[in-house]
Structures are given as C-alpha cells and as structure tokens.
C-alpha cells in the first residue's frame, strides 16, 4: 500500500472522474459500522491538498452524520472499475455542514444544485493511501440514476423537511443525527 502526502492534481482528477465512491464511518460504541456507496456526478470535490467534500443526499438513515457528530472518523474510498487498477483511500476527520452554517454558501457554489441535498460532508484528510486494485472487477458504467431527484421533487422542500425529521433524527445506535437540526434545503 502506498502512502501519499497530499492530494495532487493527478490524484484529484482520478477521484473526481470516478462515477461512484464509498464512505465508511463507525460509532465509538455500538454495533453498526456504516459503509455507503455514493454516486459521483459532480458530487465530490477536492477543496485543497488535504481537504475534500461531497454532497450528502437525504437518505433513509443518518449514520454518517451521526458518527461524525460523535467522533469525526471517516474514510472515503475510490476504486477504478475501468482503466488501470487502482484504489484510493482518504482517512480523516469529517463534519457535516448544513444549511444555515456559515460555510454552507461557500460550498454550495462548488456542487451541482440538488433539492435532495441535506448537507455537505467536509473531510480534513489525515492520510491518503493507494493500493493496486487488482481484485476490483472491470465494469461498464451506464449512467447515473435519477431516482433521488425525482423523489425529492415529489416530496418538495416541506416534505423533505418532514422526512428528515422523522427518518434522520437518530442513528441505528441512537446517536444524534439531525436531531435538533432543522434542514430545509434551499432551492438552488
């Protein structure tokens, strides 16, 4: 496994060009480790040589945000499913930036607009590692799904706020997710 000291332009280009990435977090105590696939249609950005961010879309759970609120630990992983084999992992400390936070507006302009967005996850990268990826299969990418956009459009801002209040308040282990945080996504 190689260790990289910073995210250079070539590494940034590789990560930004991948159609999917994976995010893993875990609580300090509890039973549920979380690993989530994320579509990447402009949803992941490199902010600096050791800082990245991605759009966090409304989901049926809130594990990533809850785990980050508790302990901040996160790993983001990219795999090359086409071209030369490669895996990149970004280990670091993350936090959620929700509408109303001072940093939200500055991040918003870097990403495509999305009614389904509930936050941005910002990661201060502490370790960048690469590995061969020889075991990762070659696969063909067809397209990004539009289910989230259609679902969010049907729900509308008020329906999304109600859904988040019901489904995103607590993690599976009872950690605070969006509990007490009002997240109404501005329409961009």
Descriptive keywords:
4 helices; 8 strands; globular; alpha+beta; single chain; 8-stranded antiparallel sheet; Pnp Oxidase, Chain A; 23% helix; 32% strand; 188 residues
Q: What do we call the CATH topology?
A: Pnp Oxidase, Chain A
Morphology call: globular
Quickly give the structural class. alpha+beta
| Rg value | 16 Å
How many helices? The count is: 4
The main pleated sheet reads as: 8 strands, antiparallel
Quick structural summary:
With 188 residues, the protein is α+β, with helices and mostly antiparallel strands. It has helices at residues 9-17, 63-70, 104-108, 147-167, and strands at residues 2-4, 20-25, 34-39, 44-48, 51-57, 73-79, 87-97, 117-131. The protein is globular.
Describe this structure in words.
With 188 residues, this protein is an alpha+beta fold. The protein has one domain: Pnp Oxidase, Chain A (Roll), CATH 2.30.110.10. It has helices at 9-17, 63-70, 104-108, 147-167; strands spanning 2-4, 20-25, 34-39, 44-48, 51-57, 73-79, 87-97, 117-131. A hairpin with a 7-residue loop joins strand 6 (73-79) and strand 7. The longest helix is centred in the last third of the chain and has 21 residues, at 147-167. The chain is globular.
Note the topology:
Layout: E1 2-4, H1 9-17, E2 20-25, E3 34-39, E4 44-48, E5 51-57, H2 63-70, E6 73-79, E7 87-97, H3 104-108, E8 117-131, H4 147-167
Antiparallel strand pairs: 1-8, 2-3, 2-6, 4-5, 5-8, 6-7, 7-8
């Amino acid at each position: 496994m190689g260790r990289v000291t910073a995210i250079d332009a070539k590494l940034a280009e590789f990560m930004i060009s991948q159609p999917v990435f994976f995010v893993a977090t875990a609580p300090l105590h509890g039973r549920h480790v979380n690993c989530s696939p994320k579509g990447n249609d402009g949803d992941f950005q490199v902010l600096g040589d050791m800082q990245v961010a991605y759009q966090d879309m409304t989901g049926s759970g809130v594990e990533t945000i809850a785990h980050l609120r508790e302990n901040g630990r996160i790993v983001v992983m990219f795999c090359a499913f086409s071209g030369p084999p490669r895996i990149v992992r970004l280990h670091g400390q993350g936090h959620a930036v929700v509408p109303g936070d001072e940093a939200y507006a500055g991040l918003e302009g870097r990403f495509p607009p999305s009614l389904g967005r509930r936050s941005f996850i910002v990661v201060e990268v502490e370790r960048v590692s690469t590995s061969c990826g020889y075991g990762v299969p070659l696969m063909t990418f067809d397209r990004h799904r539009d289910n989230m956009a259609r679902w969010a459009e049907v729900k509308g801002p008020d329906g999304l706020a109600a859904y988040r209040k019901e489904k995103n308040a607590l993690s599976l282990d009872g950690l605070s997710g969006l509990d007490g945080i009002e997240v109404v996504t501005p329409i961009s």
